[in-house]
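User: Sequence in, structure out. Go.
Assistant: Echoing your sequence, followed by the structure tokens.
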Amino acid sequence: MGGLPGDGEAAAGTGAAAIALCFLLRTGAAGQAQVLMGRKKTGFGTGKMVGLGGHIEPGESPREAACREVAEESSVVVRQQDLNDVGMVEFVFPARPEWDMSTRVFTVSAFTGDPVETVEIEPHWFDLDDLPVSDMWQDADHWLPPMLSGRRLAVRITLRPDNETVADAYLEELAALAED
């Protein structure tokens, strides 16, 4: 999750920041499935391993934002038509409601370029069966593995007052998602 929560356009009717998040997928040299994540170097979540993404700008679709954010954070180019919409994650911070986020999550296997380190992200490829969960937000272990495996989910994560640990995680399987 890129940027500072609370900035940018709010999700319709929720007051939560609208976020687009994208996970690049590839087959590694030994034939194993891999995902690109990045160590956050600045802002909200500094030091954590995260997906590439950030705020959806006014007038921008979630797909447009995902493509823009991937390019800004890694110099990799992805096309909107190649994005696989795997769901939504609502993050609720009862102790800091200005941090609430409504996040559209995409995966993509078709992209151009090799990831490079930027001011915001230090990119790393990880095997899907060996995600760096100890370096990620605690909530990611609830929803990220099933989404990366292709399941489409609607997720609501409620954090405890420490804004780190999960108080409640609700996952619902989705048959299809409405387009942007």
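User: And one key feature?
Assistant: Residues 1-13 have pLDDT under 50 and may be disordered.
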